[in-house]
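Residues determine shape. Take a concrete instance:
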Amino acid sequence: MNGPEALMLGTEHNRHGPDWWMDFFVVHLDLNGPEPVRVSAARAQRYTARPVADWWSGETLFSYDGTGYTRRAVVRAMTDHDGGAHVDAVLAGFYESLMRHGEGLSIVAEFERLGAAPFENGVPQYAGNAHLALMRQLAHDVLATVSYFAWPVQDSPIVPWTTRYPTKANATMTPHPDE
């Protein structure tokens, strides 16, 4: 379970650049609500097994201002600065960008209707919850790994153990790119 041979199942990550998010998120549109664009974790069913250290701090998920950011960087920004340990008045630029999901899918709408529009007309609307959806996706990767390798866990009502997580019998695995 630990040591250099320990593996994590990571969401298959084939897109880079501005489309990186398409491997991790599902987009939801609601033109009647105040937040017309939302994303949720894709909860992938295709995984790439890689060493834990590479999964955690080796693979770049996305770039911001020319710097690549890993799972570790995102989790640390959330837990150390955005409510885990405390809330900073100013968050790191990459994390603010992730929260706004400014490089992701947006819509611009012009409504003509009686009464106020549910969101600002003519202004790009982005998903404001991408950081939370990414965290859910990372948690899904952890739960998928635990299930696949049959690591011993104690079930609890908070995280019900279901068959939706992969096992060696039902998982689709792609080789690690370095193999």
In short: DSSP finds four helices and nine strands in the chain.
